[in-house]
Amino acid sequence: MIDSNDDYSRRFQELRPFLVNDEGLRYADFIKTLTPNYTRLYLDIALGYFALIVTFAFVRAVPVEMDYGLLFTVFAGAISIGFWIAYLQLFLHEGAHFNFAPDRGQSDFLCNILVAWMVGTSVQQYRITHFQHHRALGRIDDSESTYFSSLNLAFLIKALFGVRVMEVLRSRTELEAKAKRVDRGTWVRPMGLLAHIAIVTISFFSRELLFCAAWVLGTVMFFPLFGALRQLLEHRDPSADPCVDYNEHDHGAYTRVFGPGIFASVFGAAGFNRHLLHHWEPQVSYTNLHEMEAYLLKTELASVIEQRRSTYLKTFLSLFRFT
Question: Do 85 and 221 form a contact (C-beta atoms < 8 A)?
């Protein structure tokens, strides 16, 4: 018997062997038919880089003599840069499950070259954190714990001014230190740092000062804000008590589905807009989640999906408190 009040995001494997859709197709047989669409993956990544190029063109097009518009241009550019870096880093999630190429070594290399460098980690290092998230969702030892916090002004300020970044980095460093040594991919972090330094340096000496400022603000402030906010909206239980420290008490597993709209598909790229389905079946590529959802809507789990269905705006408004 399916309990629609439980999203099964930590215990889906209990249901897996018994699922059959209304056409008699067993879930275990259906899953075997799904294969990643690599063309779509690379086109989606290309979209992120194209958006960054468009942002550069926008910032560069502002006449220097327009003093009143310079501040607006810098912040508009920074928000765009932060948003699209947040978009691109979501594809690390796909790389963590080896879905960049049929060969695992090639998948890791492509993910590091195309995405990981931008956020100062390797997919091998990220995999340690992400797999712990799957194992410990809702518990105090969850490695992706942003949703432990209440959504309020203090949270947004901490995310915007780097406090949350330092908390995440400290937590991930401790987790990686406890894990087995990761020898592969160690070149990605220094490569990424050098790439960011090169972007800032070249834009500065090319007198693209507005873009230089926008890149710094976008990567340091707005990218962490968007990343932290997205994760909280995915997993924060609406009944969570703001007075409880979920670093000391289990929050409980709670995961949402945000749907296929344009904003949801960009803000929640790489399948994050169907995040509950990913927690149910982590190895399935995001390029197949729409097929998986269509299948599951013809099973007893349809009520669970509908119970957890929302939008980013609706979830934000329902969770946000000023204090």
Answer: no
Residues 100, 107: contact at Cβ < 8 Å?
A: yes
Q: Which of 299, 307, 292 shows the shortest CA–CA distance to 255?
A: 307
SS3 321: strand
- In tens, the pLDDT along 231-263 reads 999 999 999 999 999 999 999 999 999 988 999
DSSP, collapsed to helix, strand or coil, labels residue 36 as coil
* Structure-derived torsion over alpha carbons of residues 18, 19, 22, 26, reported in degrees to the nearest 10: -90
Q: Residues 301, 6: contact at Cβ < 8 Å?
A: no
Residue 3 to residue 265: CA distance in whole angstroms? 28
52-60: average pLDDT: 96
> CB–CB of 88/49 below 8 Å?
yes
- If you ran DSSP here, which 8-state letter would residue 218 be given? I
Position 288 scores a pLDDT of: 98
Q: Whole-angstrom Cα distance, residue 55 to residue 48?
A: 11
CB atoms within 10 A of CB 237: 15
pLDDT over 90, % of the chain: 82
The CA distance from 52 to 73, in Å, is: 14
pLDDT score for 169 = 64
Average pLDDT score over residue span 16-34:
96
**Which of helix, strand or coil describes residue 197?**
helix
Residues 237/219, Cβ–Cβ less than 8 Å: no
According to the model, what pLDDT value does residue 154 have? 94
DSSP state of 3: -
Rounded-to-integer distance, Cα 112 and Cα 106, Å: 10
Closest to 95 measured CA to CA, from 86, 107, 84: 107
Tokens of 103: 């060969």
Give bridge partners of residue 152 from the DSSP assignment.
321
